[in-house]
Design goal:
Blueprint (H helix, E strand, L loop, with lengths): L6 E5 L3 H14 L3 E5 L2 H11 L3 E4 L8 H11 L5 E5 L4 H10 L3 E4 L4 H9 L8
Parallel strand pairs: 1-2, 1-3, 3-4, 4-5
Helix pairs in contact: 1-5, 2-3, 3-4
């Protein structure tokens, strides 16, 4: 699957962070991007839209990113969740990986870091 064919879900309570990530994903070639505000909305959107990849913040209202990751991965063990957070402690990283996250990017993530994270997904290519 090419990067441009991926369906992407972004979940961050910061409008600025969502916009920045959306802009970087578009620069990386993504066209189908869904944005939500909190962890519960991410879970519901994942179930409704079945995206190929989810970018989640950790600290959010309603449900945090680790809890959302856990519930998404319980629903779909093949879900590809990437945590994008400014809260980059080893504890958060371990919790996110244990919950099922496949990758962890420190905010602000560059377009090249995002592209590389997408290319690290099984079966994803640039062309």
């Amino acid at each position: 699957m090419r990067i441009e064919d991926l369906k992407v879900l972004i979940c961050d309570d910061s409008l600025l962070a969502r916009k920045s990530l959306t802009d970087s994903l578009k620069k990386a070639g993504c066209k189908d991007i869904i944005e939500v505000y909190d962890g519960q909305a991410a879970i519901e959107s994942y179930k409704a839209n079945r995206p190929n990849v989810v970018f989640l913040d950790i600290i959010m209202p309603v449900k945090d990113g680790v809890t959302a990751t856990r519930e998404i991965c319980e629903f779909d063990p093949d879900a590809h969740v990437i945590i994008v957070s400014s809260v980059g402690t080893q504890v958060h990283l371990r919790e996110a990986i244990k919950a099922g996250a496949k990758d962890f990017l420190q905010k602000p993530a560059s377009t090249s870091q995002i592209r590389n994270a997408l290319l690290n997904m099984k079966g994803v290519t640039e062309e």
